């Protein structure tokens, strides 16, 4: 397995007297899919919120190392985590712009790059060559990811009019337009039927293999987790109870207990 892209060391997140995540450590390799799984309330989304700047951890170090650069995410604001460390995420609930087309949603995701190319609107107003080139590149990148997500035929369709499964893939394509090195996906298979889940699996494997992007995945659909993950971290009540490849996790007694519960003693 490749060197760590993300290293989480002794992460804890407290809300008053509630410990949502306690002393969590794990690594997510580059060019790999790492799944974080566990029952509802295990602390999975809290981990994502710490990684992407929504929460500042109570304790812990979150290190992202890529291309000779090291970023300590726990010290950074959310916008710098996205822009400088190049971490992108999706959410449990779809957050597209429903009245914009699929293509427009992906171009909007590149707003920061376009604004800098336009010199904060001056270049856009005067049609400077640098801005026109950046605009063409943004459209090309958007169309590339629509094609990879098998959504190119819907480029001019409003996002809110797309089928649910297509909206899920569009969110991933939008995140990829920010050119991340780490893509955090929060339950991307939620609400998908088996065919749509299989399509999602193919897309995520292609992102890993063709683009070399590290993927950190929260997911309840075990057909997705076991089908595509290189490495799995299991949480229960904010604590890590297991870590390893899918085959080892599938057979781990502590994981089985967390999902199925302890059997009751017979009277």
How many individual helices?
11
**Share in helix:** 25-40%
- Describe the biggest sheet? 6 strands, mixed
**CATH fold-level name of the largest domain:** Rossmann fold
| Shape assignment | globular
Tell me the name of the CATH class of the largest domain: Alpha Beta
Textual characterization of the structure:
This protein has helices spanning 44-51, 78-83, 102-108, 111-117, 122-126, 129-148, 164-176, 194-211, 222-228, 246-251, 253-260, and strands spanning 4-15, 18-29, 33-37, 59-66, 69-72, 87-89, 182-186, 214-218, 231-236, 239-244. Helix 3 (102-108) packs across helix 6 (129-148). Helix content is 39%, strand content 25%. It is an alpha/beta fold and 267 residues long. It has two domains: 1-86 and 181-262, P-loop containing nucleotide triphosphate hydrolases (Rossmann fold, 3-Layer(aba) Sandwich); 94-179, Rossmann fold (3-Layer(aba) Sandwich), CATH 3.40.50. The mean pLDDT is 90. The strands form two sheets. It has a six-stranded mixed sheet, sandwiched between helices. Strands 2-1-4-5 form a four-stranded antiparallel sheet, covered by helices on one side.
